Amino acid sequence: MFDWLVVGAGFAGAVLAERLASVRGERVLVIDRRDHIAGNAYDEHDEAGVLMHRYGPHIFHTNSEAVFAHLSNFTKWRAYEHRVLGKVQDGKLVPIPINRTTVNRLYDLALTSEAEVEAFFDARAEKVAEVRTSEDVVVGRVGRELYETFFRGYTRKQWGLDPSELDKSVTSRVPTRADNDDRYFTDSFQFMPADGYTAMFSKMLDHPNITVMTGTEYAAVKDKFPHRRLIWTGPVDEFFDFRFGKLPYRSLRFEHQTLDQEWFQPAGTVNYPGEEVPYTRISEYKYLTGQVHPKTTITTEFPAAEGDPYYPIPRPENAALYKRYEALADATPNTWFVGRLATYRYYNMDQVVGQALATFRRIEAEVPQSAANDGPLLAAGD
Ligand code: FAD
Ligand code: UDP
Asked: Cβ of 314: how many Cβ atoms within 10 Å?
């Protein structure tokens, strides 16, 4: 008998399981259909001994002191600021986000002030009355040529959609800068867990009140292990047996390679915005982890329609379909939906941690703590 069944051992599930077990002293069963904890943030040493991320590069960054402080209970950190280069026409490698260096290198210029770079952008920007789509965001700021160089092809590959068909929130993730700052993120906390994500999750889940079962489907345990309440962090449409149809999620195929050389490329990630190659980016883990090793491991990302659901696809019709599932979720008793797939939000890791901590505060306010002799609230068939 468990007080809580937590479906998914990623950030959403693990953060909540730990809070429920250690603050409320409740008994928690955490399951994951994958054969490991940590969800998409899972990292492991490959055969050569290089620490790599099975589901693509995960770089931790946040402006939330509370989120950073919370995770700091389970890991030490290594300072790391991610840098990305874009491989464009003629094989030129230039900083992305677009900054002063990008403009100077692409156009053989020698702009030295932010004002000059802003004037360069302004001369090209096509002002749009209402910035609605991911095309509007970029074309409205830097014009069509830079948009086509860096955003159109990459986005069409990544999403299988033209930027004009995606919410503005997607390309808005990547700013445009007039200075020389070549960091991918500008958050106040930019760190990698010193021993990796999986080690951090192990510590989080290492509690006498928590039982972890990997390689375990929800369907296989829901009736077998009586539980009073449920945390669901899988896809929300799956929970409701796709009652209103499938919610679209975008997938990726990862190609991992270990190379018998110390380094492969000049930055943690190189983006390939052109449509002449089917992949979007290549990442080299040793930049992220700081590991010293004679070999190096890289991951190439090939976007795909089919496969594990990695990205909710932000566009109005999907938001409308999600709203219908959200109404069902809100009306489901003793069940909380948390995380990127369960709330259909294009969230980074820190946002998922923040959402999980907020959910915990809601539970604390609304749900009396379980007593040892409480019976199950969620029985077979619920
Ligand atoms: P997940 O990590 O997906 O965990 C959900 C878990 O539930 C999964 O392990 C799944 O197996 C399990 N599950 C689902 N259904 C069932 C079921 N029926 N039964 C049992 N188990 C089930 N964020 C950043 O902040 N920085 C980055 O650099 C970054 N890079 C990323 C790169 C890629 C390629 C991707 C795809 C994402 C990236 N993210 C990054 C986002 C990050 O992965 C997510 O924000 C975070 O992992 C979401 O955590 P979660 O717990 O919501 O979901
Ligand atoms: N993007 C792009 N070109 C780039 C980098 C990003 O077109 O060189 C667009 C693309 O649509 C991408 C989105 O901006 O999906 C967000 O980029 P981010 O790097 O945040 O994507 P993630 O790391 O979440 O895959």
From this structure: 17
| Tens digits of residue pLDDT in 254-291 | 999 999 999 999 999 999 999 999 999 999 999 999 99
Domain boundaries, the chain: 2-37+205-247+313-366, 99-172
pTM: 0.98
How far does residue 105's CA lie from ligand 2's centre (Å)?
21
Architecture of domain 2-37+205-247+313-366: 3-Layer(aba) Sandwich (3.40)
Q: CB neighbours (10 Å) of residue 259?
A: 14
How far does the centroid of ligand 2 lie from the alpha carbon of residue 23, in Å? Answer: 38
* Residues framing ligand 1 (Cβ under 6 A): 7-13, 31-34, 39-41, 55-59, 217-218, 233-234, 252, 310, 339-341, 347-350, 352
Say if residues 214 and 268 touch (Cβ distance below 8 Å).
Answer: no
